[in-house]
Fold these 2 entries.
Entry 1:
Amino acid sequence: MHSLKNISVLMLLAFSLLITTTDAQADTTKYFGNIRYNHVSPHVEIKGVNPLNKEQIANRPHFIFTYGSNKKLFTIVDKSYNVVKRHHIASLGAYKVTFTYENNKETRHFFDVNNEPMLNMKGVYKEVYSFNDNGFKNELSFYDLQGKIMESNWKISNYQWFKKGNWVVEQRFNLKNEKQPLAPYFDFATTAIEYDTLGNPYKHFNLNEKLEVTNNAVGVAYYQDTYDEKGLHKKYAYYDQNNHMTHNQWKFGYAVKHYDELGNYLYRIKFDKESKQLSPSYKKTIPQPTSTKDIAEIKRIATGYLIALQQRKPDLMKEVLHEKLAKHTISNYAEGGQYIRETTYDSLLKFAQSWNSDGTRFPPVPKNQVTILDSYKNMATVKLVSDNWYEYLHLIKMDGQWKIKNLVWTRH
């Protein structure tokens, strides 16, 4: 047992030494606003897009790429502050990634903000890519901290690639050497990647056992990606084996992505295969400081919750509560000890109908005192004191309406 622990310690020390050596060798630093969006395959190289300078990174999320004297990538530090759309393949899934190269292999390790090894977005500690003598990336395997091969979150332990014409053909396997689909939610079997002239993954095909383009169960044979002049992923569309646009399992034919002036992803609009817009047009909501009108409304909504119980007004209760309400109190066991007791949204609607039906739950003239402790943009914290209870509420404003989202209480 002690020997295993010592081995783990030595491995961590080796990792730390590796990082130190890597950083010392790095002599070029570049900054990027984004990483090329890749939901296709780990065969696709990591590439920074939307380059920035030192002045620009001072006030915006970014990625830091460092390169060695041989121009190979050595580290990526993620300072994106989670503004990037996270995806199993598209996201680095770690604060820091280190790259080492030896014997036709590239190894990637993943570290958190404390420089401790961590699981990346795929759910693995180490990725080892293999290259043939021509420099073609032909395999990827995943490992744990002890160097034992492991499966990703998608139950994949090994990727294998080979060339067929202008395609890169991909197959994926679990620990039992069973073939795996492209993703748990996307049923492509053996697949082929076609790159554009700039090295971006352009088309991604579903192949049968004869390596022929074929429809999957919902009639999709391939999807096609396009990029803007900054390298940002702009559009993706779905086609059948006859090159006709078709609908995917989510019932749309293509989607167009939109970004802000900094290159941060904002939203997408989906269309059917006839180009009929399916998603509502995006309307950016600019939160405003809490106005006098908002303050009055916050107080009305907060006290409305009590009035709905006191005066048996289920419609008012429905008006003031958010459907995803979380209401809790700390209760005591008869034999000692405490537990958290929940009251659901549906329960409160029922309570508003009948809980005070005999008129004895509250004084004839209730005292409902509301104090706004803090408010910022579309959020507010409120203290509510009545004859019966002492409560703290969180309110949120969505689509112009204030609602009670969270509530904790205890008896007076």
Entry 2:
Amino acid sequence: MKVSLAAALAAALVLTAGAANADPDWAKVAQALGKAGAMQPGGVYKVSLPRSDLRVTLDGIALKPGFALGGWLAFEPMGDQAMVMGDLVLTEAEANPVMARLQAGGIEVTALHNHLLRSAPMTLYLHVEGRGDALKLAEALHAGLALSKTPFGGGAPPAAAAPSGLDVAAIDQALGAKGKLNGAVLQYAIARKEPIHDGDAPVPPAMGTAISINVQPAGPGVAAITGDFVLLASEVNPVVKALHAHGIEVTALHSHMLNDQPRLFFLHFWGHGPAKSLAAGLAAALARTNRA
């Protein structure tokens, strides 16, 4: 069977285009970074970096890593390249050495701030972004994180057992969302309705644009809550008022990205008390947002 020159060229172009648009090799990315991740909706490859080495307390409560110390990195394919965003949990002594090494490797710093008040020891949260070859990004991120004590061990995933003393179904109903269990911590990720971009790149919820709510048991019917609301400017003060009306503290208000469209504000919170009352306060705040 003869194949025309035109047909052969067309086939070669299709194969070349397919290779150019192939996702990065995530197994190699995991090897370069030093820790494996998992695929998330939207084609995002996400790596969890909880600071299980730290012993942090707040208002007498020992904070679990998945509750308030859960760093992460998320890679989004862009043709044969990638964009990475992340939130790294660091101690005060680690922050600037890590930032300097990341910037030397081409990773941009987009925010550095607190999430909590009164916690001991204090932890800082470094938001980063990079674009380019996924392997080189992973190597640069590993070099930066190596200047911290961030654990890279895989370890077994925490058992998905219902948090002791919490009525998970009631919290789900109050928030209008289905939580996921991360060990003893109940976690919610609630997307916004509008599409979100960073410059020309879409930023799906798995890249850190979902409203995040974490619930940790603190006794029978009692919980601690933390997380962040992802808000438009017009939503910030209505959400602050709703949280304060239910005894929930606002602990930080800031940006996470530099070129976000629309412009977004990330509002962090803390509460400790009856789980039913806290869930009502969170539901009142959620009602002030353009949630999906």
